[in-house]
Amino acid sequence: MRFEGSDGLPVQSQLLLPGEAFEVTADDTLQASQLLKLDWIGLHLERSQHLTVLGPGGVQQRLRLETRISCNNILAARQFTLAGMGVSLQPVPEVRELLARGELLPLLPDWQLEPIGLHIVTPRRDA
After folding, report:
1. Quick check: is 125 in a domain?
2. Domains in the chain: how many in total?
3. Is a pLDDT exceeding 90 seen at residue 78?
């Protein structure tokens, strides 16, 4: 079975100071250099991760991000983000309430992450 979907969202904390918070420019162009300068909190054991974002008009950007903080748990990454220590990718269903309360802010409101495939492997039933 294969499912398509992208329910991850790059987010930042409301605690970031105005000069530290990321804002998309008025013409909705993504400044890749701005994204690369942010303090990323990642879930991978590796120091870098790739992020592909799709913007207005079909614009696509692929970035190689260096993480400042690396976690092995999404909850830890979320707590670091809420504390204003950087930005992270979070699953939308898990942060929907935090977004509604304004505790987390979408980093790129008009952009989406590239859909990822999810493959599920199950044992054969007729074996």
Report:
1. no
2. 1
3. yes
